[in-house]
Amino acid sequence: MKKSKTYDTKSLSAKQPIGIFDSGVGGLTVAKEIKKVMPHEDIIYFGDTKHLPYGEKSKEAIIGYCKQITRFLMGQNCKAIVVACNTATANALKEISEEIHGQAFLFDVIHPVAEKVAFSLHQNIGVIATKATVGTGLYKKTIRKHNKFLQVHELATPLLVPAIEEGFIYHPITKAILANYLSDKKLNHIDTLILGCTHYPLLTKEIKQYYEDKVNVIDSPAIVANQVKFILEQNQLLNDKNHLPEYKFYLSDITKNFQKISKKFFGNKISLELKNLDKK
Ligand code: DGL
Fold it and tell me: Residues 6 or more apart from 26 whose CB is under 8 A from it?
């Protein structure tokens, strides 16, 4: 969690929503967990479906998308911004933080997970993520900064996001892709696996099945959601129990799969709106 030095908690109020964003459905795994641990919070979600997959884009492009989305969410008066995307975290966290300029709390999906894993009983850690995340080596750097005795093996698994966005969950194609990636020799001796892309928890069951439950698959969305709760609670920024939460979803391109998964996680009454941030 990053907080600017000029940040003033007194200017924020519990009534403000939590802003969450990702390139697509992945961030919904984090949003769902945030809803579970903080059931009285309003959530504004932005899914940049028009530009996904972020994992195949240049750092400059990712920074550009993230700055636009952050500006949009700050315009919605969010008290916290959750970057529910590893690729955005690894490539654009500094720029996102500059955009927020100390006016809201900023949370990401890599630092709390790396820290938690570094201080738990693990030795050989595997990380699967997009190309653009693995390219930065941020998981390895962050885990080893906390605990230099750990082995960290990062593997890019780029076909998983398109398969998930296509709705191929419990699908033979995804099973074959997973078997191919997880049998990579880089991951041969791992005891722990971090799903370093927020899309991947949608495949947790299949991944656990592949390992026959012999590898510890880290529940990143729960770690992130609990950190958000802890900080907001400490700053008295959580709504009281009488507050009926509102969930708003903005998409740069409406996809059937997003509609399906968002309704599955948040119920049928959610509002889903097309929002093109490229238009001036
Ligand atoms: N869900 C995202 C992540 O955590 C991005 C996936 C993508 O768009 O490539 O990295």
Answer: 84, 85, 161, 164, 197, 198, 199, 200, 202
